[in-house]
Every structure is written in C-alpha cells, then in structure tokens.
C-alpha cells in the first residue's frame, strides 16, 4: 500500500511538472474598423481596434504566449507587426509583407507568438498600405517574471505614453501623394495618447505625492523625432528597447521614431497639475503638444510656462553617448546582461548601408545602396519555405559596400540580403542626406556601438563602445553622420530591416535579411503554421516536407 501511495505521489508530481512547464497564454480578439476621429480638431478617418484609438495595450510577462484573433473590417488587406518582439525561430508571426499574406477584408487571422526571453516596452502597428498614418497602434509591455530581480523597486503604477507626429490627411490620401511620386512633407501636429493637448482634456494620469511611477514612452509616429519632458520633474531612465540601462537622470529625452523607453518619475513637487510635453526635433517648424498629470486631490492648474525643448544635433548625440547597458542587471533570464561579452567576438562580415533619394520614371523613390525595395505578390518567406525563391526574388541584389553609382541610380526590385546563420555581423549606416534617419531590424536586438559625424572607415572601430553599448532594436543616424551596430544572426527566418520614416519605408528604403539554418531543423526554426494564409505562386503548391528535430 505504501509503495502504491508513493507511486501515485510520483505520478501527481510528474503531472504537476508538465502543467507548470506550459507557459501562460493570453487571448485577445481585435475588431479592426474605420471610425471618425479628430485628434487635431479636424474630423478624419482613423483605424480603431475594438473602437479604441490608440489601440488597447497588451500587458504580458516574459515567455507568455500571446494569441490575437484579428478581424479585418477595413476595405483593404491588413497586417499587424510587433515592433521589437523577436519571434525567436518564428518569423511567420512578424506580420510584415515579406513574411505574411495579408488578412483580406472581411476575414480574420490569429497571430500566435511567444515573447520568449524578452522584457521591456514595445508597441504594435499595422504594416500595410500606409495604415500606420491612421492609427491601429498601441503599447505592448513585457514584464519580468517574479523570480527575476528588477534593478528598481516596484512603481506605484505603470503608465503607457504613446507619442507621435500626426497628419490630418487620411492614410489613403497620403498614399496617393506618395504613389504620385511626391513627398508627404511635414506633419500637422503631435499627439500624446491620441490627443493634441488643447488644454480642455481631463488629466491623463494621476500621481500620489511621494510615490514613484513608471512611464513607458514610445514614438509611434511616421516621420519625426520627438523630445519628451515633464514640467518640474526629472526622469530616471531605466529601460530602453527591451534592455535595462544605467540609471541616469534627465530633464528631457529625445525619442526617435519607433523607439521606446521607460523612465521613473517621483511625485516630489508641490501638489498640483503638471504638463507632459512632446515637441518635434530636427525640423524647421516646431510642433508642441501637452498632456496633464494631476497630483491626487489637487485642483491647482498647471503652469502655462512649458519647459523649453533642446535644439541642435549635439545635444541629442551627447545624450545617445550617455546611454549605457546595465551590466549587473538581469533581463529576461537570471544571468546579468553583462555576461554576454559582445566586444570580444570577431566580426565575420561588414555591411555598409547608405540611404538615398532619387526619381524613377519621374517619381520619388528611396533606396538602400541603390536598390528600392518592392513587395512581390508572394511573400519572400513563403517563396523560400516552398523552395521557389528564384521565381520571386534574387538574393544579394546590393553589395556589402555601396558603389558610387548607387547614390544616383535607383533600381526598383525586391531587396534581399542572404546572411550566414550565426555569423557575427557589423552593419554601418551612413546618412549623406540632410534629414535624420531612424532604422529598425525585426527579429533581433543589436549593440549600438557608435554614432559619429562624417563617413565611416575601418579605423573608426577604435571609437566603438565594446563594453556596455545598449542592446536595442532601433538606431538613429543624424544628417552627415554614421552609426554602427553589431549582432549575431542567430534567429532563423526572413527579417525586415527598414527605415522607420514611413514614406521612405513605403517607397522602398527597406530590405529583408534571409537567415537560413542549413539543418532545416525545428531546433532552429518552426514550420509554417497550419493557419497561415497562402497567396501568390505558392497558393496551390504542395506543402514541402516539414522541418524535424
């Protein structure tokens, strides 16, 4: 009898272990529609998720499985992408035109991805048809697991701040301007959480005197870097693009397009209302908007005198250089971030990327090393998985070192770079234009090791930060400057490297990096999901043999 009890106890223990091994699931249903919004006082067509603009925040924890059933009630095909989420082994969920067939009008598609080994502040957005200019974006939080120490005390509350430039023209009108070969020019204003801060709005957030709050700030705009500050309060930077950072204190922070960061703010001032301020950077006309923070129980209005924003590039460049990876903090796993010594790895390949603008057949196009990307009817990833890439695109249409001719002559075609699995790569971005650039790489974080003025040469490597550069997914490049990043291509799939300036992205300043595991093994990459939409030339092809262990 005792032996039987022991055996049953063992079975119970084993069954409990199996249950606990399954990471939690979060389920969402999104109804995506058009709706009339007036964020700048002008009624216009916006994109709503469950009747919300901006869309609902996703609040998750490291390793959670996120399942989102998206119903497309627009009149155009639709995709969502998850800015900064790495989708380990699973570019099928990346939601870019190079990886997925779009969700057709009146149809639905269920995304299922895991926020594997990540923490931090991110956002989602629609990646198709210039929809991002109409909304459809929202915050995506990945909190640390309880067993992982966080390098700051639990805040009293956790607030999402969505900032971005805004146009009063509809996304379809802006798209027609671009399709006609012209630029959309400057924005019409700036929003904070979907509003323009005309002074009549209720307080956005409330703080208790003496308490500390976490503000997650993301620039979801389509063209303009923004500066963010809080009247009368200092901000302690604690996290940036998914990495804990050395906790310096700032009175203002530049946040470039598609970047996210977290700050701690303590309510240590006279109890009353205070303005959050977001203003444009690096454009001639400065647009400013505000939102109100109220101390609990206060009825004293905020001062109309707003803190001034910074000017010039030097301020922003010096601020970038002040950002440092927190080497002693744990991120998604118990081991400290600094246990990964990226500075001691030999570089196996250097890719230099130069952005350019020119005309093709009289119409404006943007390019990388002389190639302006266009999306084929068949997504690149599907063509590769079904083993028919040669019918859809060519690999390595750009050289690793741009030629002098590429600055003037632009070729329009799919732009795909073939990368060797697990190679350690250096990518250098050179910006010869007069406007700031912002770049993002899906599927990865990279080490932003340097930004300097002038042109890059190999001798510049002596200036790299090879110890504590922040691991992040977005990097800005100032006019007449270069930026260098380093990373290991260890996440198999096809991943989008793009300009975050949306007219540039739409008109070709992007490419895809194909990272293929020669083993075709489930250890390296997942098979195409059973619910994946098929389109283009693969629609009626037999499914190839699946990857196995």
TrEMBL record:
It comes from the Eukaryota. Keywords: Signal. Pfam families: Cu-oxidase (PF00394), Cu-oxidase_2 (PF07731), Cu-oxidase_3 (PF07732). InterPro entries: Cu-oxidase-like_N, Cu-oxidase_2nd, Cu-oxidase_C, Cu-oxidase_fam, Cupredoxin, CuRO_2_AO-like. Residues 1-21 form the signal peptide. Residues 31-145, 158-298, 378-518 form the Plastocyanin-like domain. The keyword Protein biosynthesis does not apply. GO terms for molecular function: copper ion binding; oxidoreductase activity. Belongs to the multicopper oxidase family. PANTHER family: MULTI-COPPER OXIDASE, OS01G0816700 PROTEIN. This is L-ascorbate oxidase homolog.
